[in-house]
Amino acid sequence: MVNVANAADPGIAAANNGPRPLQMGAKGAYIVRLLMVGDSACGKTSLVLRFDQNVFSTKFVATIGVDYRDKMVKIEGAPMRLQLWDTAGQERFRSLTSNFFGRADGFVLCYDISNRPSFDHVIGWMRDIKTRAPPDCDIVLCGNKADLDNDRVVQAEEGKMLAEEYGVQFFETSALTGHNVEAMFTSLATTIKHNRIDAFDGGGKFD
Fold first, then answer.
1. May I ask the CATH architecture of the domain 21-196?
2. Domain residue spans of the chain
């Protein structure tokens, strides 16, 4: 887990003493808010669609503001409703999407392995997360479009090293083929379960 300190919100700063317990929804499932962030055209929407519906669309439509989907999963027996907030990557929507950071439980920070600027901009997105997100949120750095290996300009080792520098998980994925998509979301949800459920119930035993 990355401890993103220096939060701007006083309520967030108060959480520095320890992780927040996850909220339990009306249907008996833990609510987990995951934000997809990163530059436009990195495939954030495609990753959500692949995970949620196991489909891929070749049509590119830029997200306007924030889109939302949810998916019920069981993580190590714990029922969790993953709220997938798909945010716009364009600069003109940056202030709008960053307003959602304060209630996040986790982030998927995406870049395109065939687009060097999208990788270079990770540092800026990480800065936004550190200043606006709760200190107990968990993060995955995601190098998407791994199917475009012939057009690769960001090596996997670069992504891995950057993730290690920030203390976050790293995956390379392909929304087109489905490679590592479910594994990435499941890994992030599992980390959140360990930090935000098991830490409070002494081991997280579920049927």
1. 3-Layer(aba) Sandwich (3.40)
2. 21-196
